[in-house]
Specification:
Strand content: 15-25%
Length: 140
């Protein structure tokens, strides 16, 4: 299980309220639906809730709490935060669709902490986790 310090949890709490995100731009709508229904979201940890989106241009880590994604490791999310637009990214909105329609895979109880850490490290260092794909093949 991944542990977060209480200070980190507190510093993230301002982002949890979905009202902080403006409506997503119309140009994102098609992509959000495609991503949300694609089965490319993988739940890798339940508390805190960590997700991976297997993207065309790399894998992205998402942190979610109370049914709202509050962080995505994609470049688009970081750019929106830097611009202070609070629009998030397509992955943030697509995750809600994936959860609503049960279009995700849950491997959170099938992997141990060492495997979880390896997946996170690969994505943070390489933007891609070959280890996660190996695990997914094993459980498919």
């Amino acid at each position: 299980m991944v542990m977060m310090s209480s200070g980190l949890k507190d510093s993230l709490s301002y982002k949890i309220d979905e009202k902080t995100y403006q409506e997503f731009p119309d140009k994102w709508e098609k992509r959000i639906k495609e991503e949300g229904l694609s089965n490319k979201f993988i739940l890798i940890n339940k508390e805190p809730e960590l997700w991976v989106f297997l993207g065309e241009h790399g894998d992205h880590l998402l942190l979610s709490k109370n049914d709202s994604a509050i962080y995505c490791s994609c470049k688009g999310f970081r750019m929106e935060i830097e611009k202070k637009t609070n629009k998030g990214c397509t992955h943030i909105y697509a995750l809600k669709i994936a959860k609503k329609f049960n279009k995700f895979r849950d491997i959170s109880e099938k992997i141990n902490n060492q495997e979880l850490n390896k997946i996170i490290e690969e994505i943070m260092e390489l933007d891609y986790s070959s280890y996660l794909r190996t695990i997914l093949i094993k459980f498919s």
